[in-house]
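Lab manual, section 2.4: Encoding a predicted structure.

Procedure: take the sequence of the chain (110 residues), apply the prediction step described in section 2.3, and record the output as structure tokens. A sample record is shown.
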Amino acid sequence: AAFKAGADLDCAQFANTDAIQNAVSSGHITEDLIDKRLFQLFRVQFRLGMFDPYEIQPFRQFELNQLRSPAHLELSKEAARQGMVLLKNENHALPLKGGNTKILVAGPLA
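Recorded output:
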């Protein structure tokens, strides 16, 4: 479903080739669709320099402690807050009514 919706990469399932093979075998997705998604993914990775020699890759200049600094983590949270989008409000479920409403967020990226 994610491939059909336009997702190029699902990091949580990236190594799960069995799921992709099963989806193709069962007809849920086609090899052409996988080729299209991989083309889009690799195009972005090439533009980011991820296939350049290691020593000139632009993002290799940063140390892990720089990337996980409190300032960067806060910036990531703010970007996530600003990037949240309501995609559907099927059956006018939102806004939630008060009371004992509980929400379950599940899945590998939840």
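Check your result against the sample. The CA atoms of residues 62 and 98 lie 45 Å apart.
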